[in-house]
Amino acid sequence: HSRPRRFDEALPLTNSKSGETVTAQEVHDLLVRQDFCCALTGEPLSPGDAAMDHILAVSRGGPHTIDNAQIIRKDVNRAKGTLTNEEFIALFRAVVCHIDKNTP
What are the tens digits of pLDDT across the range 17-67? Predict the structure, then answer.
């Protein structure tokens, strides 16, 4: 299948389970606030590598609203899973700390 050319083609606006919806305009405004960069890595985003992430996962009680959303890279979203930002960052800090201690 072809890569999306626009962010509104790439990001889910409706949560299929709850029916909650965010608008394309809300997503666009969020991307502008994020300067079209990943909220967690700061790397530039393109429609083909962007994913909408719930700051508090829906499976953990978070709503599908723009206030609970951030746009991050797809690979970062896969790695983050259902972790909160704080849990995800703490995990990566632990990994880096471990690697730093054990790398000559």
Answer: 667 778 888 888 999 999 999 999 999 999 889 999 999 999 999 998 999
What's the first-to-final CA gap in the chain, in angstroms?
44
> Which stretch of DSSP H or E encloses residue 70?
strand 69-73
pLDDT in tens, 69-88: 999 999 999 999 999 999 99
CB 56 within 8 A of CB 48: no
What is d(CA 53, CA 75) in angstroms, rounded to the nearest whole number? 11
Q: Is 18 helix (H, G, I), strand (E, B) or coil?
A: coil
| Residue 61 backbone class (left: φ over 0; alpha: ψ -120 to 50; beta: rest) | left
**Tokens encoding 62:** 């978070």
Nearest alpha-carbon partner for 51 in 27, 23, 29: 27
What is the gyration radius of the CA atoms in the chain, in angstroms? Answer: 15
Does this model's pTM top 0.85? My answer is no
